[in-house]
Amino acid sequence: MLDIIGVGDTNVDIMIRVPHIPSHDEKVRGKLFGYFPGGITANFCSAAASFGAKVGAVCKIGQDDYGELAMNDLIMRGVDTSHMVVKPDVETYFCMILLDETGEKALTIVETSGFVPKFEEVDISYLKQAKRVHMTTLDMELTAGVAEALKGCGTKLSLDIEATAGSCSPEVWDRVLRSVDIAFPNEAGLAALTGCADIKEGATQLLNRGVGTVVVTCGAKGVQVFERDGSFSYPAFCVPVRDTTGAGDCFNAVFLTGVVNGWPLECCAQYASAAAAIAIGNVGARTNLPTKTQVDEFLKERGKCVCNW
Question: Looking at residue 114, what DSSP letter applies?
């Protein structure tokens, strides 16, 4: 049985180094840093596999150079790709990422016909073999379809809530949220979905709409975790930053891997924060994904307790 299956996107990130992120109508000179496999879902799957989870990916790619790069990287990382959607008549999507000297980024998603699978292209019987399915808000029609199809089975659903969350109707959101065990909004995603500037108020709204646990990632400010019977926060580790691309995906992956293995949520938050801190130490969303052993060493060096499976 697989621990987690990610359903959503995979792509290629075209990384360009710039002295600073340009403002409106400003021109800057940049240098091509390289082509890196990316995508929110595929980054998540890669990070979970690196940390030791048994992972599958259901993403859509074309039979092109970008698709080959995306697929081969997942295979190399031990992700099950047996149910990837590969189409000869679609173009694998890509992102243009401007990366400044502080490691912060500006990202443009270039959508193509190979963005995410259609609901009818997803094998639901495959998803039901996993303990958990993890999805994003990039295509709420797909997310809503999978959420409905998983009702009544033992597979739990988690959801990465992005800043585009507010573009979907409240009715669709209500149906989805009732099925979500763990929601992972960042601050922008939480505000877009709930209309609340206050994190606690926004998280409480999601809990009241049916979500089991709300994990709000706040970048350098750390993470806040909310359940119906209480909440806690965990600070981010202070480390040199080279590239924040995929840091949230890595965090979510390690947090969920801990949940699958029965860890207390405080331990999940500690390990996920440490893993994300390691991941941002190199350029590329998957270049520096840590193993559990590496995270153990990172925590021991900082005098923190480690968890066993």
Answer: B
Comparing CA positions, the residue from 55, 38, 2 lying closest to residue 283 is: 38
The residue whose two tokens read 């590239």 is 243
pLDDT tens digits, one per residue of 208-256: 999 999 999 999 899 999 999 999 999 999 998 888 888 999 999 999 9
Q: Does residue 50 contact residue 79 with C-beta atoms inside 8 Å?
A: no
Q: Which uninterrupted H or E stretch holds 227?
A: strand 223-227
Nearest Cα neighbor of 60 from 28, 86, 35 is 86
At 115-147, the pLDDT tens digits run: 999 999 999 999 999 999 999 999 999 999 999
Strands 213-217 and 223-227: antiparallel
Tokens of 159: 């959801």
Supply 34's token pair: 């390289």
With contact defined as beta carbons under 8 Å apart, do 67 and 114 qualify?
A: yes
